[in-house]
Amino acid sequence: MKVTKDTLIGDVLDFNVETAKFFFEIGMHCLGCPHSRGESIADACQVHGTDADALVAKLNEFLGE
User: Fold this and answer.
1) H helices, E strands: number in the chain
2) Mean pLDDT of residues grouped by 10 in the chain (65 residues)?
3) How far apart are alpha carbons 9 and 41 in whole angstroms?
């Protein structure tokens, strides 16, 4: 899976649930709610005041291993 800023959080979690730790690290603790699972990474990072590019890079590095 190749993650982009437009990728939905739910799609990333469905692909590999272990990615949740990266969302938790930046304060996204509501991963189980339907709204957050339907949000793009860019939208969620904007709401949480974090860098979407940095999160995407971490996720892709982890998923590429």
Assistant:
1) 5, 0
2) 96 94 88 83 92 97 92
3) 6
